[in-house]
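Hi C.,

You asked whether I'd gotten around to modeling the 360-residue construct. I have! Everything is below, sequence then structure, no commentary in between.
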Amino acid sequence: MKMVPDLVANLLSFLPESLVVTIWYAVLAVLIFVPLIITMAMLTYAERRVIGSMQARIGPNRVGPFGLLQPFADVLKLVVKEIVIPSSSSKFLFLLAPLLALTPALAAWAVIPLWPGFVVADINAGVLYLLALSSTGVYGVILAGWATNSKYAFLGAMRAAAQMVAYEIAMGFAVVGVIMASRSLNLGDIIHGQQGGFLNWYCVWLLPLLVVYFISGVAETNRAPFDVVEGESEIVAGCHVEYSGMAFALFFVAEYINMILISALTSLFFLGGWLSPFEGWTWVWVPEFVRAPHFIWFFAKMSFFLFCYLWFRATFPRYRYDQIMRLGWKIFIPVTLVWIVVESVLMLYRVGPWSTIAGG
């Protein structure tokens, strides 16, 4: 059982091999999902505090010291709140939609290398796995809007579907640039291809793709200023307008976990993941633990992009829908296509990080 550590395999040697593998992956899922859910909960607190500070407001400060227990109070409120199912809705699909929105966001973490040597599933086609999951996430939104049998919810679902498709194409082309640079679909190989310090990170040579990828990620998660699918003055709350209690909470959790996922992937694709920016700095004294790759670097890069999410929400007004569509179709997609051609020329003439590619 190569996929199970020897210690675990020996402790559970009296069980069938398939059951041991199942137990091991169940433990890994708990060890990843529990910190992820807690991080998501504290992100809601950070969002309120950060935006409150930017807008000269206080933010949550009543429940617990400094308001730190406010996210848990929100969870308690949603748990005890009744789940109301509209009488005219398709009840099975109505309840299935939140799960379809949340499951891809959680399943994507199976291929994310969190620190050196640790990844749940080190598959060679990790990027394709992520693209497939991101494509299925839109079904939860569409199904929620359709199964509710409400005009407002259906309109919000159609807006979300068009927006997610437009920006997912731009994100896909941006990832193509990363694949060309790393010559691999394995996420671990993409990180290792950026070794040698921050000058070797793909953000240096693929900066336009970094900008397109992250802004498209903001649009993919329907966050401000791309939150027209939840335009309260027009369609109340979008596809989940009829949801309450924990059914609504699943959409809420999916949105924030997707924010964390987009921040993690942006850090991984363009900023070296858990690599240190000071790696290879032998010409100046830097402590060894600072130059070493570590989860702390990955967390710091993710935190920066998550702060950008909050910053955008506090700064920019909501865009009109035609502006959002124009940005996705007429600007981002052409920019990514042009830069892929530029990258091809750089690879052809062995410029920059491609100077070490062996001729063929």
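If it helps when you're writing up: Residues 17-54 form the longest helix (38 residues).

Thanks,
B.
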